[in-house]
Amino acid sequence: MIYTNIVKTLEPMHEVKNIDRDFDFFKTCKAQRLPYPKDKDEELKIKTQQMLIVIAGTILGDLKRNNTNLVSRSLLFIDFDDVQETESEFLGKITDKLKAVNYCLYPTLKYKPDNIRYRLVLELDRAVSREEYEKLLFGLCLDLAVKFEFDESNKTWSQGQGLPIVTEFSSDNLRIFHDGFKPVPVDKFLHRITNSQQWVDAQKKQRLPKTSSYTTNSSGKQKYTGVFLEQLFEGATVGNRNIWWRQMVDKMLSVDTPIETIAKVMGAINFNLEIFPEPLDQKELDTIFHSRIKNHAEKGGNLY
């Protein structure tokens, strides 16, 4: 199934009806026309309040986008940011490596001829779990061998990806819909990745150190994540809510938390009456959200 919405919303995802095959959606969906962002502030506004995002798979419950409700994915997405190759070299690798499978490729918001940015959508031959999705992502990035800056938010299970867009620097003619072949054979590909030395090495790196960030260290002091979660669920008094939220957003930005995750955390905590009996209204919350992200960007911080 296909679900769409914008990032900055507490509303459920909207299920797109009358689609027999999820991959076909990318052949017929109309590209959004949006302005090329002139600065990071405008980029943030477009990404969180205007740009449509999509999830392909199965969302249960209230259809709100989170890691619990999303039970499987039917398409795999890879964002190619800051590609360090010419456009012809990049497209050559994609068309050569993926000639036997079905895929869609289209430019993203900040694409320019001198700033190559594309989103790749791959059809899978079956729905996959969270662990399988991350493993496929790892293996396909290795196989494609494209020189680019990997966006860690690709690993976020419930991350929504932007739909095709057109700016003054791009055209929908750049969208490639490669169909009539085969979907990626999930089980065969997973078997190959699992038995590869690259995957074994990557797992070794992830297991070091083995101590959990939710536990205490040898001196009895809580680690950063544990302290942060305690502060988050303690909430704040009525007169201290704005300052408290600014501090919480700054802390999340300091560890490169994706902006859409920050927005979801703010909404979930602020409107939980057990934590905030008197929550801030949505307008105040939005003001804090945008001001802290703008401040972070002006200081040279990354936005994910």
Folded structure, characterized:
By secondary structure, the protein is of the alpha+beta class. It has two domains: 2-206, no CATH class; 224-298. Helix content is 37%, strand content 18%. The chain has helices at residues 25-28, 40-49, 87-97, 130-144, 186-194, 197-206, 224-234, 241-254, 259-270, 282-298, and strands spanning 2-6, 14-16, 32-33, 52-59, 70-81, 103-107, 118-128, 149-150, 161-162, 165-166, 176-178. Strands 1, 2, 4, 5, 6, 7, 8, 9 and 11 form a nine-stranded antiparallel sheet that branches. It has a two-stranded parallel sheet with strand order 3-10. The longest helix has 17 residues, at 282-298. The model is unreliable at 208-222 (pLDDT under 50). It comes from Enterococcus asini ATCC 700915. This is Primase C-terminal 1 domain-containing protein.
